[in-house]
Write a structure and sequence with these properties.
Strand order of the largest sheet: 2-1-5-4-3
Number of domains: 3
Helix content: 40-55%
Number of strands: 12
Largest sheet: 5 strands, antiparallel
CATH architecture of the largest domain: 2-Layer Sandwich
Radius of gyration: 51 Å
Order of helices and strands: HHHEEEEEHHHHEHEEHEEHHEE
Shape: rod-shaped
Distance between the termini: 89 Å
Low-confidence stretches: 416-423, 464-471
CATH topology of the largest domain: Beta-Lactamase
Structural class: alpha+beta
């Protein structure tokens, strides 16, 4: 028995899993509860209204009989006050022994309740009388009469007739409400289905897109509701995914091409040595193989750095860094290399950051300047508006304005053949961008007054008491 119940419960859960079914069930339940409660409230109101109307009618008739009997006696009661009327089905006067003295019925059935003292009153529901046991809602009033002594006036309303309309409406509600609920369920199922049609279209389109074609986009309904917002958000997400995928594919292709060049050179020389059974001469090792191996090593290190930056950001060992000392050390290195005239304007500036990473960023910029400079390099530091900038200028061919943003991307080389011959991989400025961004700064690329390129970066200053004035 239990396995059958478990299987049935599992089927019900699977059937009720779709959002359309669950929303329809919820809407149907709300309609059923609302209609049932409303119908119940109406029936209760009708029931109380009928009871109140009966009480008013029976009490009014009893008071009328009381007034006549008190002043003129029971014998003065005529048919006008004893005849049944609206909400009055039985009228009789009973003495203290429970005998019916006067009645509007041809065959009175006896007292309907206990005798009351003069001036007393009572009301009892569900009093059975007559041969068929009809239930009555009875009002009782005790009165003292001049001819019959103390008597009790009893006026009752037939509860079956009184509540017949309530019973009829209750039965009608029991028949109609299920059809109303069923109609509401069908309407809700249809409306919810229409409302979820854009969601199905989006799901179908996303399913097609997941097959690999990222050029497609999900349809955006013109409803202006949350579903339309969802479609717009998904299209924006697809744009980002498409861009990221394109950049990833380009990155992989560029990396493969760049790594293939030194590997081809090294493998070619090694294969030649294996084929000829002759060792590679030291000059070839020094002039060809070692530079290519070092280039390959540096490129792999740069790729690893960028990959880790993409995944977790650039890791920083943050401390106070005297940026002027970093710049002075790199200027000294450039002067030691020789071959270029190096000028520098250095001002004291302290920043919060990773000294090693900042030194690497500056070195990448100065090495880029060395590769392109014809004869001179200038390094200038400037402090202004709470920020410090370091700009490295050269007198080389410069960078065209349309290429100044693109040159910061990975594997971008404006003259690929010359860059490769000079040892450039197209990753140096991309690494600079990642490092500077991690320090809440930005990279600048402009034209130098000498006609070459002016590449640098700006960082926020770390203020301290002895910070020199801005220059």
């Amino acid at each position: 028995m239990r396995p059958r119940i478990s299987t049935l419960a599992g089927r019900v859960r699977r059937w009720a899993r779709p959002v359309r079914v669950r929303l329809t069930l919820l809407a149907t339940l709300l309609v059923a509860v609302t209609v049932t409660v409303a119908a119940g409230a109406v029936l209760v109101a009708l029931y109380r209204s009928a009871g109140y109307s009966a009480d008013v009618a029976t009490t009014a008739r009893a008071r009328q009989i009381e007034d006549i009997a008190r002043s003129d006696g029971v014998g003065a009661l005529d048919e006008s006050v004893l005849t049944p009327g609206r909400h009055v089905d039985i009228v009789q006067v009973v003495d203290g022994d429970g005998r019916v003295i006067v009645s509007g019925q041809r065959y009175p059935s006896g007292s309907l309740g206990p005798a009351l003292l003069p001036g007393g009153s009572d009301r009892i529901t569900g009093v059975r009388a007559g041969p068929d046991g009809t239930r009555y809602r009875v009002s009782f009033i005790g009165v003292s009469t001049p001819d019959a002594g103390p008597v009790t006036v009893e006026v009752g309303a037939d509860e079956t007739r009184l509540y017949s309309r309530v019973l009829f409406l209750g039965a009608l509600s029991a028949v109609v409400i299920p059809f109303v609920v069923l109609g509401a369920a069908l309407l809700a199922y249809y409306v919810i289905g229409r409302a979820l049609t854009p969601v199905r279209d989006i799901r179908r389109q996303v399913d097609e897109i997941s097959g690999g074609d990222l050029n497609q986009r999900v349809p955006v309904p013109d409803t202006g509701d949350e579903i339309a917002t969802l479609a717009v958000t998904m299209n924006a997400m697809l744009d980002r995914i498409d861009t990221a995928r394109s950049e990833q594919m380009r990155f992989v292709n560029d990396a493969s091409h760049e790594l293939n060049s030194p590997l081809t050179t090294l493998v070619g020389l090694l294969d030649l040595s294996r084929t000829t059974h002759r060792p590679i001469d030291p000059e070839t090792v020094e002039t060809v193989m070692m530079p290519e191996a070092l280039r390959l090593q540096g490129m792999v290190a740069d790729l690893l750095f960028l990959a880790r930056a993409d995944e977790n950001g650039v890791p920083l060992r943050v401390a106070d860094v005297d940026l002027d000392e970093v710049v002075a050390a790199d200027v000294a290195r450039l002067e030691a290399l020789g071959g270029r005239v190096v000028t520098a304007h250095i001002v004291a500036a302290r920043v919060r950051g990773d000294e090693e990473k900042l030194a690497r960023a500056l070195r990448n910029i100065t090495e880029n300047a060395v590769r392109h400079a014809d004869g001179s390099i200038d390094v200038t530091m400037t402090v202004r508006d709470g920020r410090v900038s370091v700009v490295v200028s050269d007198d080389g061919p410069g960078i065209h304005e349309s290429d100044r943003e693109r040159v910061l991307e990975r594997f971008v080389r404006l003259d690929a053949t010359r860059e490769r011959a000079r040892g450039g991989s197209g990753l140096g400025l991309a690494i600079v961008t990642e490092i500077v961004r991690a320090h809440d700064g930005h990279v600048t690329v402009a034209g130098a007054s000498s006609g070459g390129a002016a590449v640098g970066f700006e960082l926020p200053l770390q203020t301290w008491a002895d910070q020199p004035p801005e220059t």
